[in-house]
Design goal:
S-adenosyl-L-methionine; seven-stranded mixed beta sheet; Rossmann fold; methyltransferase; nucleus; 220 residues; alpha/beta; 8 helices; protein-glutamine N-methyltransferase activity; single chain; Methyltransferase HEMK2; binds S-adenosylmethionine
């Protein structure tokens, strides 16, 4: 008998996150939940690729990679990175409490994991610091790291784009959360030059922010 597949993604338990943690890490927010909703919408597509390795860059509290892990199960491996050590510890714990084993690595973008995951990432996730700020605010401290995106809110995410081709497996998919001010059409053009097609999976206005989740897959 075939195993019954769950088609919804529950929000993981994150009640262990304390107000002291939130002085240092990103609180799960509308953007985190929009990315989870995009993954839920794409779950059939993700499952069809039979993912064996999922990598989240900038995992913060770990709710996004954990949410995906709860539905994909233990045949897939989960690696996360964050520039903030505190976030890596919380990500590991969020995974543990929800039954997802995550290798959480403290590094800039994918620097210290590239050697291990090159060409093998089936699902790549990034909810970057996307807020438009002066460049000087990028990377100033733990909390600034979570939101300060510099010019057009693009200074951090733009540094990841050239690595996507090397990271992804032949059928790998990249999910990126963006703000309207990040100029998604320009991101689409940059990624097209790198060999990827772009689809907007989901879009939502939350308060002042117009957010969307873009999916990139290799051009056929
Ligand atoms: C908007 S928060 C998203 C957190 C979490 N993924 C979520 O959706 O709730 C951005 C995260 O990226 C991390 N980050 C910022 N710059 C980074 C860098 N250069 N390398 C790795 N992580 C980075 C921040 O510390 C923060 O945890």
């Amino acid at each position: 008998m075939e195993e019954e597949l769950i088609n919804t993604i529950k929000t993981p338990i994150f009640s262990h996150i304390t107000s002291e943690d939130l002085d240092h890490i990103y609180e799960p927010s509308e953007d985190s939940f929009l990315l989870i909703d995009a993954l839920e919408k794409d779950l059939d597509l993700i499952r069809k690729s039979k993912p064996l390795l999922c990598l989240e860059v900038g995992s913060g509290s770990g709710v996004v990679i954990t949410a995906l892990g709860t539905v994909l199960g233990s045949q897939c491996h989960y690696i996360s990175t964050d520039i903030n050590l505190h976030a890596c510890r919380v990500t590991k714990e969020t995974g543990r409490l929800n039954g997802v084993d995550i290798k959480a690595v403290c590094t800039d973008l994918v620097t210290d994991v590239m050697g291990d995951v090159k060409g093998a990432v089936d699902v790549l996730l990034f909810n970057p610091p996307y807020v438009v700020t002066p460049s000087e605010e990028v990377g100033r401290g733990d909390l600034e790291y979570t939101w300060a995106g510099g010019e057009c809110g693009r200074e951090v995410m733009d540094r990841l784009f050239p690595s996507v081709d090397s990271l992804l497996s032949p059928h790998g998919i990249f999910y990126l959360l963006v703000l309207k001010e990040n100029n998604p059409a320009d991101i689409e053009q940059i990624m097209a030059k790198l060999g990827f097609t772009c689809t907007c999976v989901i879009a939502r206005r939350t308060g002042q922010e117009s957010l969307s989740v873009l999916r990139f897959s290799r051009q056929k």
